[in-house]
Amino acid sequence: MYRSEKRSLFRFLAIYLVSTLILFSAGSYIFYVFEKHHLLDLQRESVKHEGEKIQHQLIRLQSTFRPTLPIYLENGYDIALLDIDKKLIFSNFDLPKDFDFTQEYQLRSEYMIYNKPIDPYYLGAAYMIIRMTVDQSGIANLQKMILMFMLSGGVFFSVLGYFLGRMFVAPMRESIEMMNRFIQDTTHELNTPISTILTNLELMETLEKCDAKSEMQRIEIASKTLSRIYDDLTYLRLNQNYHREIRPLDLSRLLQERLLYFAVAIEAKRIRLMTQIDEEIIVEIDREDAIRLIDNLLSNAIKYNKTGGILEVKIDPIELSVKDSGVGIPQKELGTIFDRFKRANRSEGGFGIGLNIVYQIVQAYKYRISIDSEPNIGTEVTITWQK
Questions:
Q1: DSSP structure class, residue 333
Q2: Which of 106, 135, 260, 276 could form a disulfide with 314 if both were Cys (CB 3.0 to 4.6 A apart)?
C-alpha cells in the first residue's frame, strides 16, 4: 500500500471511528438513562405499593383500637411515622435531618425514600416515610450489557470501517496505478521513436555515401509517432477548453491525406491497404477533431495489425469504418475499451488513450460508434453520423 493510501486510510478510519464512537456512546447513554429510570420506576411502584399496605394496617389498628399491634413490613423496607408537626412517632431507621417533605421520592446514597402523606391522621400519623434499599443488581447488569454491546459494536464497526476505508482508497489506488502505468507506457512510447531516430542518424553518419532510404523511412515513422503522441496528449489536456470551429469538411479528402500520412508505417509493416472512399463526403465537424478521429483509428489498425495483414478503410455518406486483421479484442474487454488508459492488449505499445479520444469526439458530436472484434481475427470500428 502506498504512503498516500495509508495516510488517507488512517484519516478516514480516525474520522469514521471517532464519529461512530460519539454517536454510539450518545445512543448507549440515552438507552442507559431510559432503562435506569425504568428500573427505578419499578422500584418506586414497589415502595408505593408497600406504603398502601402499611396504610391499610394503620386503618385496621385504629378501627380495632389496638395501637400496640406491630406494623408488619416486607423485608428490605424501613418505616418512620410523623405527626402533623413532623415530630417522630415511630421509626426503625434514622431519618435524614435535611429530609424534603415536598418531594414524593428521594434517592439518598443506596436508598430510595418514599414520602406518603396520610389523611385522615390514623393513630396521629400525618406522614409515612418508607425507606428501601435500591436494587443495584439490575442497574449493574444493565451497565455490563451496555459495556459488552459497546465493545462488540466497537469491534464490528472497526472491522467494517477498515473494509470501508479500503473501498474508500481503492479509487486512489487505481488512479495511482493508472498513472504509474501511464508514465511507464509514456517512457516506453517516447523511448522507442527517439531511439529509432538517433540510431538511424548515427547509421547515416557512419555510411555517408549510401542513399539511406530505409533509414530515412524509419526516421519518418518515428518522427510521426512522436508528433502523434504529442498531439494526442495535447488534445487530452485541452479537451475541456478546446475551441471547436465546426464547419463543413470534406472527409473523403481528409481521409486520403491521413492515409498518405500513414503510408510509410503501412508499407513498413507490409500491410495490404484496401479502400472504398466515396467522393466529397461533407460533414460538419472541426478539422482537428476529424484528424484526431481518423488518426487514432488508423494508428490502432496499423499498430495491432499483423505483419502482412489487411487494412480496409471505407467511407460513405452515412459512416466511416476501419477494419484490420490484427490481434482483436476479447469480448469481456469491449465494455470498458473506451475508458482512458484502458489497453485490451499489451503486446504492442500505446497509452490506452486512442479509443478514449475517439469516444470523446463521438460523444461531442452525438455520433454513434460500434466495435466488432474477435481475438486473432481482427477488429472493425464504425463511426456513424447520419441519424
A1: G
A2: 276
**Are residues 375 and 248 part of one domain?**
yes
Contact (CB, 8 A) for 360 and 340: no
379, 326 contact by CB (below 8 A)? yes
Task: Say if CB 298 and CB 312 are below 8 A apart.
Answer: no
Q: What distance in Å separates the CA atoms of residue 16 and residue 34, rounded to the nearest whole number?
A: 27
Residues in the chain with pLDDT < 50?
A: 67-69
Residue with cell 454491546: 149
Question: How does pLDDT run across 117-146, given as a tens digit for each residue?
Answer: 887 766 678 888 988 888 888 888 888 888
Rounded CA-CA distance 94/69 in Å is 22
Asked if residue 67 lies in contact with residue 61, where contact means CB atoms within 8 angstroms, the answer is yes
Q: Is residue 29 part of a domain?
A: yes
How many structural domains are present in the chain? 2
Contact 302, 271 (CB under 8 A): yes
Alpha helices in the chain (DSSP H): 3-63, 136-206, 213-238, 251-261, 263-268, 287-303, 354-364
Check which CATH number belongs to the domain holding 273 and give it: 3.30.565.10
Give domain status of residue 179, yes or no. no
State which residues form the domain around 104. 3-134
Domain end, chosen from 134, 167, 195, is at: 134
Sorted by sequence, the CB contacts under 8 Å of residue 196 that are 6+ apart come out as: 218, 219, 221, 222
Judge whether 4 and 172 are in contact, CB under 8 Å.
yes
Cα separation, 386 vs 34, whole angstroms: 70
Does residue 385 contact residue 283 with C-beta atoms inside 8 Å?
yes
How far are the Cα atoms of 80, 183, 229, 350, 357 from residue 188, in angstroms, in the given order? 97, 9, 12, 9, 20
Instruction: Please tell me the predicted confidence (pLDDT) of residue 17.
Output: 81
Q: Classify residue 305 by its DSSP letter.
A: S
Cell representation of residue 237: 489536456
Q: Would you say 232 and 292 are in contact if contact means Cβ atoms under 8 Å apart?
A: yes
Whether 188 is in a domain gets the answer no
Domain termination site, one of 134, 158, 186 = 134
Domain assignment present for 276: yes
Say whether pTM exceeds 0.70. Answer: no
